[in-house]
């Protein structure tokens, strides 16, 4: 049976087909703009200003410094009043190799307390990496399952955090640090946190 001559079949609008695609593209563009024009080092962290997640990492087997085993560390070790720089890295990570001399220099030139989280790595590989390139870490925890890194909100190694003396995360950098970023970003953050801690100490003493 044929339809009436005056009846027309509905047709799909091309605009209706392309509209979802346009929305996805626009939202994606806005997302990257919000993240600093797509610069991964500017990715935000919901943990900024909050205590580090609870964790307790064992040492990486076989890693020693001046004849002593480099210890693992826990969240409690980051809340002892001293500013810490925490670096998440792995021996299989190319950008980590690129970044490592910057960390070694950071330790040698500025004497910062540097803590490492070794991410999903083999102990032997981590040991060879540090033997070859130098070990700047005061403590080194083995995150063999990657669970701790997930809790920290790690996007991908390497990542670097500054943790104040109260154990709160105050800075996050995604990707390999460069000497320029250390001077322009990381060191000023450390200095600001230390100044704030001294001010708090003076105010507390005055109240007493």
Structure commentary:
The protein has a single domain, classed as Glutaredoxin (3-Layer(aba) Sandwich). 40% of the residues lie in helices and 18% in strands. It contains 5 helices and 9 strands; from the N terminus they run αβββββαβαβαββα. It has helices spanning 14-34, 94-110, 123-133, 147-152, 179-207, and strands at 56-57, 64-65, 68-69, 73-74, 84-89, 113-119, 139-143, 159-163, 169-174. It has a 5-stranded mixed beta sheet. It starts with 13 loop residues before the first helix and ends with a helix.
With helices defined by DSSP (H or I, 4 residues minimum), what is the helix count?
Answer: 5
CATH topology: Glutaredoxin
Sheet with the most strands?
5 strands, mixed
Please identify the oligomeric state: single chain
CATH homologous superfamily annotation: Glutaredoxin
| Helix-strand topology string | HEEEEEHEHEHEEH
- As laid out across the biggest beta sheet, the strand order is 7-6-5-8-9
The top-level CATH class is Alpha Beta
Mean pLDDT: 84
Radius of gyration of CA atoms, rounded to a whole number? 24 Å
The fraction of residues in strands falls at 15-25%
Structural class: alpha/beta
The poorly predicted ranges are 1-6, 23-41
**Termini, distance in Å?**
97 Å
Number of domains: 1
Principal-axis shape:
globular
**Approximately how much helix is present in the residues?**
40-55%
The beta-strand count equals 9
The assigned CATH architecture is 3-Layer(aba) Sandwich
